[in-house]
Protein: Potassium transporter
Amino acid sequence: MDRQQSDGESAVVEDVVVLVNGNGVVTAENHLLTVNHSMASSSLDHRVFGRKENLVLAYKTLGVVFGGLVTSPLYVYPSMPLKSPTEDDYLGIYSIMFWTLSLIGVVKYASIALKADDHGEGGTFALYSLLCRNINIGILSSKRVESNSSLLSTNQYGESEKQSRLGKFFERSLVSRRVLLFIAILGMCMLIGDGILTPAISVLSAMDGVRAPFPSVSKTLVEALSAIVLIALFMLQKFGTSRVSFLFSPIMGAWTLFTPMVGIYSIIKHYPSIFKAISPHYLFRFFLRNGKEGWLLLGGTVLCITGSEAMFADLGHFNRSSIQIAFLFAIYPSLVLTYAGQTAYLIRHPNDHDDGFYKFIPSAVYWPVFVIATLAAIVASQSLISATFSVIKQSVVLDYFPRVKVVHTSSSKEGEVYSPEVNFILMILCVAVILIFGDGKDIGNAFGVVVSMVMLITTILLTLVMIIIWRTPPILTALYFITFFVMEGIYVSSVFTKIPEGGWIPFAISFILAFIMFGWFYGRQRKIEYEVTHKIDLDRLRLLLSDPGVQRVPGLCFFYTNIQDGLTPILGHYINNMKSLHQVTVFTTLRYLLVPKVAPHERIVVKKLGLKGVYGCIIQYGYADSLGLEGNDFVTQVTDTLRDHISNCSDEEALISSDDAEIFDLEAAKLAGVVHVRGKTRFYIGKNCSWFDRTMLAFYEVLHSNCRPALPALGTPLPQRIEVGMLYEA
Structure:
């Protein structure tokens, strides 16, 4: 049930499932709760569309998926440090851009990467989760997708296969798993950096068009106007993109159609033979003639493919066919013609490269293009901002990032989310980037680092998917890896030389984000390890309840625990000190799976635990799900499921003589009052702790103290919440 969340609620929770056996190895066995349904994503992820529906979706992708890519002509040439370029130089640059768009855009993303979806979801994180679901490589054991189904023993085509040698290597090597986790985290951080830099460079480049007809306008004024536009854009985020989304696709459609028309006009007028540069001959001549200088220019040419990752990352919002149709028949031809027109103009006006877009626009249509360019830049910014919200949401849900508030701004579009905290931070960083690094070249250098690093990370993860999951023939895998790793590696090596000239910005942002993510991850891991070591099993619980001093008080208690084959040590702490347990107690685990969506009938799974009035409950969510169980609805749905489960139990399973009596006790407890109990734990850092533990756990405590609480995610009323404090010895 989708709905807009109230301001007081967070869309994420803390408690996750830990599945371990006696040897500390993740296992699919479930000693407390059983799932009789296989993990399945929502049917929305596998929708089959007809030709008409695909064309409509392809049109809609223009305003969401391709905003960053199709507006790249605004800043590619201005970002290049060209020095007295010649005709051959421009022909070589166009050849590089053409083959970059063709190989990376058409071959890598449109033809290969879009097939590597994780139940309809795309992006670098989806690739990592896809690997985690097929082989046991997840560092965070609680994120491992396990069920009684044979999901892990079959490939995506349903064929049972032996695990590859590379898969076995990753399972055995902790170092390799940590490296893979680092790569995945770096990819997420770089994508967030993209969300900061895209609005800055897009809006700044578009607003810079004011200076051509009005040379007296200073660069400082352009920067101030750009900052005002960005602030207004971020202030509108709380209303959601759905209210203005009808403007997006027409704007980008007009841009996609108009710029290649101007490009064709420029080609005919200035240099009709421009398409001879499609020959790779000009590309090789460019590097032979320019040597190191040509290599350094790659830091600017890589921006022609910026936004291509969105084709893959936004796959879950549309489908493969619609994205392929839009890119191959609209975006790709538009970019090829637009860059050809820009290059043709610059061949005749070689020193206009610092304003390589607006200078090639005919004066008769200058202002309409300026208006469309500004609107298109805002749309491009919006798509990356929304993508950043989605990435943060997925990271929080999977416990890789501290909890922040996530609001669903649409009652019909699940992926449309907004985070006030993230939005405010993005706004501050975007405005700071513009005001401090107002030079388009510096921001372009930073942008080049983000673009090339994300592409390279996708290539590495996609190669692992090809080897481990797809079992692609080694020759084809090697051809793919060598081609794109070398190509993108050269781009990365070029943009790394720009680190002193603005390229350090995304690394600084990524380092801060990665440190936050690792600090949170490490603290959560240590907490999980303690809870697994000191967990309460059923025999221990039976012994605690057998104490004559422990009373069963009236009421229904939801006791939250984050380990599945046992109970949280906080339970023992609670019973020993309170000397009581509610008449009906439901040990509740909020379980997040590495699948995008969990089917509604699989969300709530309950089971008797063999003690009177004691039950287990798992609430399951995928990383693209919203929490649809709120407040009293949550209590009602769980108790209804429990009632059905009690009624359907066989005589052998039932531990109470009368099902009716058990249901009566459940209803009586519910009427007596409902309470939600969760642990409030902190680490006790003793003198024997290493300096690393002292530093990381202290940092984790700071994050934990300042992040959103977990329990409000289910909308539990404030008077019904109880927090039980306990110190975990580090």
User: Anything to note?
Assistant: The longest helix spans residues 174-207. The longest strand covers residues 580-593.
